[in-house]
Design goal:
46% of the residues lie in helices and 16% in strands. It has helices at residues 12-23, 36-48, 63-77, 101-126, 140-143, 150-170, 189-192, 198-202, 214-225, and strands at residues 3-7, 27-32, 53-57, 82-85, 131-136, 175-182, 236-239. It has a 7-stranded parallel β-sheet with strand order 3-2-1-4-5-6-7, with helices on both faces. Strand 1 (3-7), helix 1 and strand 2 form a beta-alpha-beta unit. The termini are far apart. Bound molecules: NADP nicotinamide-adenine-dinucleotide phosphate. NADP nicotinamide-adenine-dinucleotide phosphate binds at residues 7-8, 10-14, 31-35, 38, 59-61, 86-89, 110, 136, 138, 182, 184-185, 187-189, 192.
Length: 243
Amino acid sequence: MPIVLVTGGSRGIGAAVCRLAARDGWDVSVNYTSDASAAAEVVAAVEAAGRRAVAIKADVSDPAEVELLFEETEKALGPIDGLVNSAGITGLVSPLAEARAETIARTMDINVNGTLYCCREAARRMSARGGAIVNLSSAAANLGSPGEFVWYAASKGAVDSLTIGLSKELGPQGIRVNAVAPGLIETDIHASAGAPERVARLVPLVPLGRSGSAEETAEPIVWLLSPAASYVTGSVIRVAGGR
Ligand code: NAP
């Protein structure tokens, strides 16, 4: 059975990916960094679907922890066929002029460096047998998020660039690399940004007239992981209700 590692698999979009991947026959390594009980719930859901699962604590912004995350995943489940980089933060909403340097640095460290460290580890380990990587970008990469978190938008622009570059680098080894760029999705991320009202405030700007769910975002991600997407690489698929 194929094995997928999902960073930030304990909550939000990552947790939905774990559940849908299990539905589709994947064994799942659920990475988290602080919320062990949320990760345990996801593991239980994967097992209830008849697949194997393990929860592994690791901070993706630390390259040594990323190496251990991949090692422990292999030990517990076997060599991975898929990687979904869902771990990500925005930092507290503010105009750039008022943002703390720590907020900007931490966002870049997790969203950009963390994605690069995980992709690097996957490239090393998948090269013998091929595989699929899906990165979490954001509609923010094109919208720019003025007044909210332009540093976050910039981090997702970097995710788009590394997705395109890596797809070209790894294509000859049979490793596909794509990204999904969600719009306004109902998860904890907005409250963590200090703006729990954000979804309600921005919904009028969405052509489909509503926010999206984590499951609606996870569906194209598990499709990109699957052999049904065998000729798709280097793509950034917008899942943003038309925004
Ligand atoms: P979320 O509900 O806040 O969940 C974030 C997940 O990332 C949690 O599982 C968290 O683990 C994990 N995480 C945070 N920092 C980490 C680190 N340093 N190392 C490992 N894991 C870490 O977020 P979400 O809304 O699902 O977002 C998932 C991805 O989609 C992010 O990359 C985000 O930028 C992107 N995205 C989201 C939206 C949206 O509207 N929700 C829109 C566009 C893009 P713990 O549970 O242990 O804290």
